[in-house]
Amino acid sequence: MNLSAPSAAPKASATDRAYTHTKDAILGRRYEGGAIVSEGDIAADVGVSRTPVREALLRLQAEGLVRLYPKRGALIVPVSRQEVDDVIETRRLVEGYTVERAAAGDLAGRAALAGRLTGLLEAMEDGLAAGDTTAFVHADREFHRTIVAAAGNDILNALYESLRDRQYRMMRAGSRDADLMRRNIAEHAAILDAVRRGVAEDAAAAVRTHLDHAAASIGGRP
């Protein structure tokens, strides 16, 4: 019998910690678009030297989240109007198709999906009531991911996942107003209702309405 203790999970490297800290700050909008952040400030926040911070920033620059300027620091790249339009257009195509597939499914499949969506809608309501924007945005994003995943198309699912970071950053920008959050909940409820009833046209229309409003709230093209 092997009585040796299980090995501990490997500790994250200094570069990984700097990367995670900085990326979370960008996506969570603690570092706003257009701001300049110095290597020294990040190093002090994370408790590492500047070398791993520099490596982390190079990774983030490759992802399009920062632009590096020698001796000045990292510019947090703002979300552009074109990026908003491109993401919303892709979401319209993917989510419009997948929600129709979901609503056209059999009764048992729709009921199972509706149960999962109901839980996420309740989590959004809880986030609003608690003033917890992070929880609200997480539940919002999971609501849409759940519908896309239900279509069972791995390629569409991978495409949708590739938008994850961009969507999160944009959704944080559009989830600072309680009235908008309440409207968001009502629109998700309409999507859920159409899926539960099995009316594909209504489900697609509800998604279009929701994404049109989402685009308008973050400065995109209607």
From TrEMBL:
InterPro entries linked to this entry: GntR_C, TF_FadR/GntR_C, Tscrpt_reg_HTH_GntR, WH-like_DNA-bd_sf, WH_DNA-bd_sf
Endpoints of the signal sequence: none
UniProt GO molecular function: DNA binding; DNA-binding transcription factor activity
Entry keyword set: DNA-binding, Transcription, Transcription regulation
Superkingdom assignment: Bacteria
Domain HTH gntR-type: 12-79
PANTHER family on file: GLUCONATE OPERON TRANSCRIPTIONAL REPRESSOR, TRANSCRIPTIONAL REGULATOR, GNTR FAMILY
Name of this chain's protein: DNA-binding GntR family transcriptional regulator
Organism of provenance: Murinocardiopsis flavida
